[in-house]
Design goal:
Layout (H helix, E strand, L loop, with lengths): L13 H12 L5 H8 L3 H13 L19 E9 L4 H8 L5 E6 L6 E7 L2 H12 L5 E9 L14
Antiparallel strand pairs: 1-3, 1-4, 2-3
């Protein structure tokens, strides 16, 4: 019987990370292909993927989209200083804002960092000034325009 390490609280092992790496490169990779490449039985590969899903490590499958090719050519990082304990307020306020592609609570000079992507500079200005800076939880903001970027969507296998 297979060990149930993914649901027992233990971290994923090397084979689990290799599966995650393969799926991050091609979310449509078949269980058969994964099993063959990792020299596992199909049943073992299937069970490992199922355990990774049950444990919340593997949360879903998605397409990787080039934002510029999709028409979102304007982007910026927006750094925010928040009022005390307002992270939850910010998260809730921006939950349905499609231009905010990533939101993170951070330590250091700022409290939060947002990645904002829009079609035009005018849209970017409107999102920042009208939607983000107008929030009562935001004390101040600083914007850094992104001229070029690269995102790595590959899950790297950690070294042991």
């Amino acid at each position: 019987m297979l060990d149930d390490h993914a649901t027992s609280g233990r971290p994923p092992d090397v084979l689990d990370h290799r599966i995650l790496e393969m799926l991050s490169l091609d979310a449509r990779a078949s269980v058969t292909r994964i099993a063959e490449e990792l020299h596992l039985s199909r049943a073992n590969a299937y069970e490992r993927i199922a355990r990774l899903r049950r444990s919340g490590v593997l949360r879903g499958y998605t397409a990787v989209i080039d934002p510029r090719a999709a028409g979102l050519a304007t982007a910026a990082y927006v750094f925010l200083t928040l009022k005390q304990d307002d992270w939850g307020v910010l998260r809730e306020a921006l939950a349905d804002e499609p231009a905010v592609r990533h939101l993170a609570l951070v330590g250091g000079q700022y409290d939060a960092v947002l990645l904002v992507r829009t079609r035009t500079v005018d849209e970017l200005r409107a999102v920042i000034f009208e939607r983000i800076q107008s929030l009562s939880c935001v004390q101040s903001s600083q914007t850094a325009l992104i001229f070029d970027d690269h995102a790595e969507h590959r899950h790297a296998v950690p070294e042991e």
